[in-house]
Amino acid sequence: MGFFYNKYDDGIYRVRNICGIKITTKPLENRINMLLSQINEVKAKIDNIDIRTINTDVRSINIENQSNNIPYFYRDIKVKLNHIASTEYNYDRNIFNNINPPYISIIVPIYDIGKDYLVNCLDSLVHQTLKEIEIILVNDCSPNEEDDLICKEYALKDKRIKYIKHKENKGPGGARMTGLKESKGYSIGFVDPDDTVALNAYEIAVSRMLINNTDIVCFSFYWIENDEITDMHINIPQFLYGNNILHLLSIEKMHGPLWDKIYKKELIDKFKFDLFIDKNKLDDMIAIIKIFSIANIYEYIPIPLYFHNRRSISITNDIDKKYIFDDRKFSIENIFNYFRNNFLLKEKEIEMNNYIVTLYRLCYIFIDMKFYKTKQTENDINIYKTQRELLKQLIIDNIKDGYISEEIFLDICDKRNLWYIRDLYYN
């Protein structure tokens, strides 16, 4: 059962209070006409609205009401809403008196994004209700000239923005690492440049971090794909402690991206400059595993505060061996060595083994997803078979090299009902 809406909610208005946050649920049937009216009204007024006139001194914020005045919130996003949730949040502003600004550094790696996505993203950051923030834009040698022009324009208008240009491409991990080196905030947040953030997201998240002295604050998010929007909430306790944080991540009971969380900077600083890896497509997974391994307190806010755009994956006839094989092999070696060098392996053995099998599962799904988006020609089928063989070989090599035993691998597949991974290994 979700926090917000299911079939039993039809015709019912509910007010709930979860971790100090008031949530009002309203079923789709009673709201769709009002939503369409709001969208049409906003579109008609886009040219006449000055987004800078929003009253940000009010500490009781209603996102649903604010959206009537903010054109970017709906711009270029044609969606069918599964539900509408309005949130009100109150707290004592004095909680910020014990720390120095900026209260959060928001790091945005930028590569080949383009005007539409990037403007929406930056608008959602510069108009955050939490004003004492730092926004770090890292241009990772983007071939799109619009990216550079837009970043320069925003940096000139807003002194809270730092704009950095790489001289050579380092990948998303390298760009995030550059941002971390420049960050001065009490906490750290990461945003993908084609996503947007609810206007009070960081005010809510940072205040919760201060109130409860948490290392990580996570919030649910909206997943936007193919003109559909889905609330991606998770069913976990409000607070997690110690090794339970890493364990639930390793068995995929919580989401693993960087961007639906904020992190206490003193936690990130423990890794110095060894958190992210240049030019590795799994750098975010490696970083999350490391961060979660040393976190003591994790808080989950069951409110969608982030809008993640799932852009279509381009299909290529090339066999991306590096992505399918080498990056995953390196990731497993990197995490294994990290645990071996920083913990007794027995302490993290269960989590390490589950993480390895999770990588196999994600790789399997990626291969299938790419294949079923093709026309399934003979060439497509041959590529599909080759990529499956690469994954099978990765599993065999990991067992041979001692990263995971065959017995444990098969046991995890059985416990997590990953029969398709087990069958791939045997066939």
Automatic annotation (TrEMBL):
Domain of life according to the entry: Bacteria
Record carries keyword ATP-binding: no
Keyword Transferase: yes
SUPFAM superfamilies (alphabetical): Nucleotide-diphospho-sugar transferases
InterPro entries linked to this entry: Glyco_trans_2-like (IPR001173), Nucleotide-diphossugar_trans (IPR029044)
Gene3D superfamilies (alphabetical): Spore Coat Polysaccharide Biosynthesis Protein SpsA, Chain A (3.90.550.10)
Domain Glycosyltransferase 2-like: 105-244
Gene Ontology molecular function: hexosyltransferase activity
Keywords in alphabetical order: Glycosyltransferase, Transferase
Coiled coil: none
Entry protein name: Glycosyltransferase 2-like domain-containing protein
